[in-house]
Write a structure and sequence with these properties.
Helices cover 38% and strands 22% of the residues. With 452 residues, the chain is α/β, with parallel strands linked by helices. The strands form 6 sheets. Strands 11, 12, 13, 14, 15, 22 and 23 form a 7-stranded antiparallel β-sheet that branches. The site of one zinc ion has 3 residues, from loops.
Length: 452
């Protein structure tokens, strides 16, 4: 049996030896971006790579997920190393898909490159022989919570239970055999240096809103209409008026968009649609802001005598990394990039469904540099492949070694000491309870609720 240090060194060398293949995977995915639950080409690339490394794997999990397993000879906990398959929609990105407008503006292509690189390093060195337990290599769909109407349609057709990838995988039981989970996101932020762990991330719930008015001639007889766009604008003003009531420490973010503002300019708008997230640091803070947002939405309908349909959908849980896993990750990061390039980034106001995983098991979601441009913007690119592709590959593999080396003492210790915030059942019940459709009739001042 190799010492842990020798094994880690061998893995880093093996990853370096696979540089061309790893870079090719990251670059390939960059120019073949696909939105969540539609990542067919990307999933195939992952499955083909697993096949060529003789990794047994399942495909089409939560539509496009691919789950491989490096099975240990000795019993022990299972560590999942995760990469996200999906892209965003940024049509004017230089590598966008000309047909769909999809583009990798969040660096998920680098996550898959890193995940595949970690797998290669572990397989090439036969690392599992010196470990106990199993390593799951998990390429997961749909982290970006987008195309809400489309996904809601899939939900109504029974093709999905949730609108995000990891909640869907949890619900379908694909994390039932996983004890600890880790993934590394790519970042571009100079203040986050080369490597960063966070204290927490915002959670969110998601709302799809529809104002129904009455169409009429916009010039000839507007008094006969009910203007749904005006109702929506009053609602948006109401939400904005609430902002002073949000506590700084709760890090609330409410950022509505109008996805349909009317149909013809000479007809009073009668069908106006909005989407928004309600984000916050804790579930309590999110729920408090959500009540205020609903009140503002009803107020718009009431002012105009319109009807508003408010669909409230479960989003993502606030991220809560496991401290011990962070520590292990950081020790390796010190070796890989130097201690002066490692930082603790405090609370972040974005959201990720790794938060959901972190609610039910020990999990870690650090980030590493290697990107340039604005996150989710049209200039977001991978500018340093060493940091974006190779470093996460090494960091993920080395973390798995730390957790499972020998008799997997470290993983066992973490699992034993970890108190999950929720059981899987509690988590699912919590998320399912959020689904709600309220129809508020502003003229009558009455509300009814229905299933989404
Ligand atoms: Zn993103
Ligand atoms: Zn992302």
């Amino acid at each position: 049996m190799r010492t842990k240090e020798d094994l880690k060194k061998a893995i880093c060398e093996a990853v370096d030896g696979r540089r061309a293949e790893i870079e090719n995977i990251g670059d390939q995915i960059m120019v073949n971006p696909e939105l969540g639950f539609k990542e067919y080409k990307t999933a195939k690339l992952v499955a083909d790579t697993m096949k060529s490394f003789q990794i047994p794997h399942e495909t089409e999990l939560a539509i496009t997920g691919v789950k491989g397993v490096i099975k240990g000879k000795n019993p022990g906990p299972t560590v999942a190393l995760i990469g996200e398959l999906d892209s965003l929609l940024v049509a004017d990105h230089p590598h966008s898909d000309p047909e769909t407008g999809a583009a990798h503006a969040c660096g998920h292509n680098a996550q898959i490159a890193g995940l595949m690189g970690a797998m290669m390093g572990l397989v090439d060195t036969g690392a599992i022989d010196d470990l106990s337990g199993n390593i799951v290599i998990f390429a997961v769909p749909a982290e970006e919570y987008v195309e809400i109407e489309y996904r809601l349609g899939m939900l109504r057709e029974g093709k999905l239970s949730f609108l995000g990838g990891k909640p869907e995988l949890i619900q379908k039981g694909h994390f039932d055999d996983v004890d600890l989970a880790a993934m590394i996101h790519t970042h571009r932020s100079p203040e986050m240096k080369k490597t960063s762990v966070v204290e927490s991330c915002n959670g969110c719930i998601v709302k799809l809103i529809r104002y129904k008015g009455r169409p009429a001639h916009a010039g000839g007889a507007p008094h006969k209409g009910i203007n749904a766009l005006n109702a929506a604008q009053i609602a948006l003003a109401g939400i904005n008026a609430q902002r002073e009531t949000f506590k700084d420490d709760d890090a609330i973010r409410v950022h509505p968009i109008i996805t349909r503002g009317g149909d013809l300019v000479n007809v009073v708008p009668a069908d106006v649609r909005l989407e928004t997230f309600v984000r916050g640091k804790t579930n309590e803070a999110i729920m408090d802001a959500n009540i205020k947002v609903d009140r503002a939405l009803r107020a718009g309908a009431m002012a105009l005598g319109a009807t508003v349909e408010i669909n409230t959908l479960p989003g993502y849980m606030p991220l809560r990394d496991d401290g011990e896993m962070q520590k292990l990750f950081m020790q390796n990061a010190h070796e890989l990039v130097g201690a002066e390039e490692c930082t603790q980034a405090g609370h972040r106001t974005g959201s990720t469904d790794m938060g959901d995983i972190s609610h039910i098991m020990p999990a870690v979601h650090p980030s590493m540099s290697g990107a340039s441009g604005i996150s989710h913007g049209n200039d977001f690119l991978i500018s340093d492949k060493e940091m974006a592709y190779l470093a996460p590959a090494k960091a993920l593999a080395l973390l798995a070694v730390d957790l499972l080396y020998g008799n997997a003492e470290k993983a066992k210790e973490i699992v034993a000491h970890h108190k999950p915030i929720m059981t899987k059942e509690k988590y699912l019940a919590y998320q399912n309870k959020i689904f709600q459709k309220e129809i508020y009739d502003g003229e009558a001042g009455t509300s009814e609720t229905d299933s989404v």
